[in-house]
TrEMBL record:
It comes from the Bacteria. GO terms for cellular component: plasma membrane. The chain crosses the membrane at residues 6-30, 42-68, 74-92, 116-137, 143-167, 179-199. InterPro entries: Multi_antbiot-R_MarC. Belongs to the UPF0056 (MarC) family. It is found in: Cell membrane. This is UPF0056 membrane protein. It holds the Pfam family MarC. It is a multi-pass membrane protein. Keywords: Cell membrane, Membrane, Transmembrane, Transmembrane helix. Its main location: membrane.
Length: 209
């Protein structure tokens, strides 16, 4: 695992699974209406939570889910359902309406903080990322390999953080109308992704062929 080709393959696999460029517009949609400081705090918090979760799965792997009696397929189904609810909020702009109500009431902070859910989990640390980390850990031959995988995880998540921090520039380029269109399109894509998570989980239980 410490050989350069293996490290490149591991980085490429995890990068494709997490897809930092694809998460940037989702971050924009989920934080629409927030100021730069709030977005920066959410981006950093999502990075830290995602890194912590990935390290837990790297070190403990399937034992984490097995300890509480949760299979990966059950995790896929639960994550899909929760993600679908978020997609509905994006499609019907309920999230933005809540933020506007909070602003009009003079609240200092938004109660609707997407840093942990759905950004860190399941968008960044989703079933695919968890499975990839567990598989990489299974191929590790020692502490050096585990350290190399941990470095790869941090590198990919740092790219995610940079994509999130660049979100304001992307938002200015799109404008309000463009953001509304992107939010609804991404809501549809997230809904489809959520359904796919559920179908994959059901298939793992032998339901649906």
């Amino acid at each position: 695992m410490t050989e350069l080709p293996a490290l490149i393959a591991a980085f490429t696999t995890l990068f494709i699974i997490i897809d930092p460029p694809g998460l940037a517009p989702v971050f924009i949609a989920l934080t629409q209406g927030m100021d730069a400081a709030q977005r920066r705090a959410i981006a950093i918090r999502a990075f830290m939570v995602a890194a912590g979760l990935m390290m837990v799965f790297l070190l403990l792997g399937e034992a984490v889910l097995g300890f509480v009696g949760i299979s990966m397929d059950a995790f896929r189904i639960a994550g899909g359902i929760l993600l679908f609810l978020t997609a509905l909020d994006m499609l019907f702009q309920r999230r933005q309406a809540r933020r506007e109500d909070q602003a009009s009431e003079g609240q200092a902070e938004h109660e609707d903080d997407p840093s942990v859910f759905p950004l860190a989990l399941p968008l960044i640390v989703g079933p695919g990322a968890i499975t990839t980390v567990i598989l990489l850990a299974g191929e590790a031959q020692g502490a050096a390999d585990i350290a190399a995988i941990a470095g790869i995880i941090v590198a990919v998540l740092f790219i995610v953080l940079l994509a999130f921090l660049a979100a304001p520039a992307i938002e200015r380029a799109l404008g309000k109308t463009g953001l509304n269109i992107v939010t609804r399109v991404l809501g549809m894509l997230l809904a489809a992704l959520a359904v796919q998570f559920v179908l994959d989980g059901l298939r793992g239980f032998g339901i649906g062929g």
